[in-house]
TrEMBL record, chain A:
Organism lineage string: Bacteria, Pseudomonadati, Pseudomonadota, Alphaproteobacteria, Hyphomicrobiales
SMART domains xrefs: CO_deh_flav_C
Domain FAD-binding PCMH-type: 1-172
Listed name of the protein: Xanthine dehydrogenase family protein subunit M
Species name: Mesorhizobium neociceri
Gene Ontology MF terms in the entry: FAD binding; oxidoreductase activity
Pfam families, per the entry: CO_deh_flav_C, FAD_binding_5
Keywords noted in UniProt: FAD, Flavoprotein, Oxidoreductase
Keyword Oxidoreductase among record annotations: yes
From TrEMBL, chain B:
Organism of provenance: Mesorhizobium neociceri
Pfam families per UniProt: Fer2, Fer2_2
Lineage summary: Bacteria, Pseudomonadati, Pseudomonadota, Alphaproteobacteria, Hyphomicrobiales
Superkingdom as given in the UniProt entry: Bacteria
Protein name (record): (2Fe-2S)-binding protein
Entry-linked Gene3D superfamilies: 3.10.20.30, [2Fe-2S]-binding domain
Length: 286, 159
């Protein structure tokens, strides 16, 4: 096994593209090292991307924010501007693991680990976040939701690295929120989760909505019907009931020891409803 | 197989070592450098017994490769006391009997040190939350929380 810490994204891409055997990208390592320890992966090459300039920063851009691939989630929680603009994304990122894990884990890693239960992913999808992918044929920007294609599988091809996650500036009168259900009070894997992002007009009528569910299907689910249930309305009881119903209906969850299909469907609706209520209040709706 | 040459700072001392590319920092500390304070509990980042501070961040050393420590600043429980003078947290853990078997204690001490460095006057809830990444199967946590509260009081007074 080789461990290499390149100084540029081009070198990192070159190393991964030219590698034979199994290679792994190391940022926070909170998934990779556990998988290595468990014998689930034995990389021939580890490319540590933490020495690449710019990847460890949250930058404010003309369009919003660029969160570098190696920024630990703890740093997201310490960014007052990011918390103000995207409180739902930050609260989702802050739910991952203990304080020790927070000091290492990244939202890019959470995305690329491609767990259906990844906490930050539904919040990012609801926020319309994009991933900047660097690869052997240059850079491309894709929606975050296009990265995971199944449990543990991503659409990234050989040599590709996500170098940053982009979030737009939050539109006026907008708010986002994320909630998950776990059997404990802290530090567990989502049984089911919901991320919501809403924009309102001056009268509190919802003009744009994105509702994403986690741990409800093999990959994160963006529920279009949930948006339709909300857009053009204030957040009244009928809208919330309709939202909960379509979210429950959209789920294609697994049945396992942490939750039955029936339970996950029901809770998906409840969480979507509660996250929507919070997002609505954050957007200034009353 | 040739190792990875690493140059780093541990508890204020410049340290150089060779390690294997897949060797964790925990294994380097314990097996190569003789710093056996950090313990391996789970080895998967769940229990906090291997907690250290890396560039001012609390982390599990079992989830860090030894090679990653290059050029960084590592603090372990061995750096807490000054000679015979225990750190206030260590003293208060003793006074409050905040340990039984002791395996989790170095991790708790380091996590509590990190907590108090960032929040010198934590509430009980903040202490419990701040130490939630450290598992103890003996004490029931109450004595640990009281020791940290007492140490915070002492450290604020600068005694």
């Amino acid at each position: 096994m080789r461990y290499i810490r390149p100084l540029s994204i081009e070198d990192a891409v070159g190393l991964l593209a030219g590698a034979s055997g199994t290679s792994a990208i190391l940022a926070g390592g909170s998934d990779l090292l556990v998988r290595m320890k468990g014998g689930f992966v034995e990389p021939d090459l580890i490319v540590d991307i933490k020495a690449i300039e710019g990847l460890s920063e949250i930058r404010e851009t003309a369009d919003g924010f660029s969160i570098g691939a190696t920024v630990p989630c703890a740093v997201l929680g310490e960014s007052s501007v990011l918390k103000k603009a995207w409180p739902g994304v930050v609260e989702a990122a802050k739910l991952i693991g203990s304080k020790q894990v927070q000091g290492r884990c990244t939202i890019t890693g959470n995305l690329c680990n491609a767990s259906p239960a990844a906490d930050s992913v539904p919040a990012l999808v609801a926020a319309g976040a994009k991933a900047v992918v660097a690869g052997p044929s240059g850079r491309r920007t894709i929606p975050v939701g296009a990265v995971p294609i199944g449990p543990g599988k991503t659409s990234l091809t050989k040599g590709e690295i996500i170098e940053a996650i982009l979030l737009d500036s939050q539109a006026p009168r907008s708010g986002d929120a994320y909630l998950r259900f776990i059997p404990r009070t802290e530090m567990d894997i989502a049984v089911v989760s919901a991320g919501v992002n809403l924009t309102l007009d001056e009268h509190g009528v919802i003009t744009a909505a994105r509702v994403a569910l986690g741990a409800a299907a093999p990959t994160v689910l963006l529920v279009e019907e949930a948006a339709e249930a909300l857009i053009g309305r204030k957040l009244d009881e009928a809208a919330l009931e309709r939202l909960a119903k379509v979210c429950a209906g959209a789920c294609r969850p697994i049945d396992d020891k942490r939750g039955t299909i029936e339970f996950r469907r029901k809770v998906a609706g409840v969480l979507a409803r509660r996250a929507t209520t919070t997002a609505y209040a954050r957007a200034g709706g009353k | 197989m040739a190792g990875v040459a690493v140059s780093t700072t541990i508890n204020g001392d410049h340290v150089e070592y060779l390690c294997q590319p897949d060797e964790t920092l925990l294994d380097v500390l314990r097996d190569r450098l003789g710093l056996t304070g950090a313990k391996e509990g789970c080895g998967t980042g769940d229990c906090g017994a291997c907690s250290i501070i890396l560039d001012n961040r609390l982390v599990c050393s079992c989830l860090v490769l030894g090679a990653e420590a290059e050029g960084r600043i590592v603090e372990t429980v061995e750096g807490m006391a000054h000679g015979d003078q225990l750190h206030p947290l260590q003293q208060k853990f003793l006074e409050h009997a905040a340990l039984q078997c002791g395996i989790c204690t170095p991790g708790f001490l380091i996590a509590a040190k990190d907590l108090l460095a960032k929040n010198p006057d934590p509430t009980e809830e903040e202490i419990r939350f701040g130490l939630a990444g450290n598992l103890c199967r003996c004490t029931g946590y109450d004595k640990i929380v009281r020791a940290v509260q007492d140490a915070a009081t002492v450290m604020k007074k600068g005694v």
